[in-house]
Design brief:
Largest sheet: 9 strands, mixed
Strand content: 25-35%
Structural class: alpha+beta
Order of helices and strands: EEEHEEEHHEEEHEEEHEHEEEHE
CATH topology of the largest domain: D-amino Acid Aminotransferase, Chain A, domain 2
Number of domains: 2
CATH superfamily of the largest domain: D-amino Acid Aminotransferase, subunit A, domain 2
Radius of gyration: 21 Å
Number of strands: 17
Bound molecules: 2-OXO-4-methylpentanoic acid
Length: 351
């Protein structure tokens, strides 16, 4: 079993003056977690230490072949966290798929708690803000052959953050991408591999240039069935029931996705995890049965979608406004996360 060393920073940084302007992922706290892996020692040298840059060989495997995985979760005021053990389990699953050595989930979970306790004064308090936590593992062997590295860094950094989308909770506009694809079944779309996100930037940038916040990916085979947005899973309310794409290997098994499904079912709403064709969605928008659309993700929380553009067709959802169910699920989920509503599912932990 690893030991966790704590080395506190002697030079604490100035905290952001206004929680209104945190944005997402720009600011980092005083400390980080780092643990190393080598062939000889396995995972070792676990430490919570001052936040600092790495010195790596330009030949480090991560720079060339992207053998890297990550997670995203949050700490809320009152030192609360939401399903952190599920993030650790998903990271372990990503590690297996990317030939990264398995780690002791319980140990890392405890080390993460310790890091958050050390930097607890960085947890913002304003509504809609939180301390975003980014656990990452990367391959650092200085070697250009394509095979699994034997040395790795496992690090966790913390970033006080506000809303993921620049416009806050305002419903977003999404471009349905029908040329490029995000993932194929049998590939790595179901894990949080860094390369998935790098590969999404090209289409994302083109959509941003046209005024969209994000891209909605379609399946790689027929370019017809909805997959996910990349930074979030997607859900549609049609005729009072909820529809979301199934987890068949090309969609990330979102923890917020799962929580939202359970909250919706708990409210007596029927939830379908089944393939959703974009042309059927378009028809549903024309006949008025498409009532609400929203995305779910750790960073995105529950984000209302007000407009989708597919080819030359514009789908305006609920008059471009956040729907009632979206609002209710947002209130319920964030109520549990911020400790304002009862947590009957046992999803939260207070450190
Ligand atoms: C998250 O929601 O935590 C994510 O990892 C998505 C994104 C910011 C890359």
């Amino acid at each position: 079993m690893e030991q966790l060393e704590i080395k506190l920073s002697k030079h604490l940084k100035e905290k952001p003056k206004s929680e209104n302007e945190l944005g997402f992922g720009h600011i980092f706290t005083d400390h980080m977690f780092l643990m190393e892996h080598s062939a000889e020692k396995g995972w070792h040298n676990a430490v919570v230490k001052p936040f600092e840059d790495f010195t790596l060989s330009p030949a480090a495997a991560v720079f060339h072949y992207a053998q890297t995985i990550f997670e995203g979760l949050k700490a809320y005021p009152g030192l609360r966290m939401f399903r952190p053990w599920d993030n650790m389990a998903r990271l372990q699953n990503s590690a297996r798929r990317m030939c990264i050595p398995e780690f002791d989930e319980k140990f890392v979970l405890e080390a993460m708690y310790e890091l958050v306790r050390v930097d607890k004064d960085w947890i913002p308090k304003m509504e809609g803000t939180s301390l975003y936590i980014r656990p990452t593992i990367m391959a650092v062997d200085p070697f250009l052959g394509v095979h699994a590295s034997s040395s790795y860094y496992f690090f966790i950094i913390l970033s006080p953050s506000g809303f993921y989308y620049a416009d806050g909770v305002k419903p977003i506009k999404i471009f349905v991408e029908d040329t490029y694809v995000r993932a194929v079944i049998g590939g790595v779309g179901h894990i949080k591999a860094g390369g998935n996100y790098a590969a999404s930037i090209y289409a994302g940038d083109a959509a941003t240039a046209k005024g969209y916040a994000q891209v909605l990916w379609l399946d790689a085979h027929e370019h017809r069935f909805v997959e996910e947005v990349g930074s979030m899973n997607i859900m549609f309310k049609i005729n009072g029931e909820l529809y979301t794409p199934p987890l068949r290997g090309s969609v990330l098994p979102g923890i917020t996705r799962d929580s939202t499904i359970r909250l919706a079912k708990d409210r007596g709403i029927t939830v379908h995890e089944e393939p959703i064709a974009i042309d059927e969605l378009y028809k549903a928008s024309l006949d008025g049965s498409l009532e609400e659309v929203f995305g779910t993700g750790t960073a995105a929380v529950i984000s209302s979608v007000g407009e989708l553009t597919w080819k030359d067709k514009k789908i305006v959802v609920n008059g471009g406004k956040m729907g009632q169910l979206t609002q209710e699920l947002y209130d319920e989920l964030t109520g549990i996360q911020y400790g304002k509503r009862p947590d009957k599912f046992g999803w939260t932990v207070q450190l």
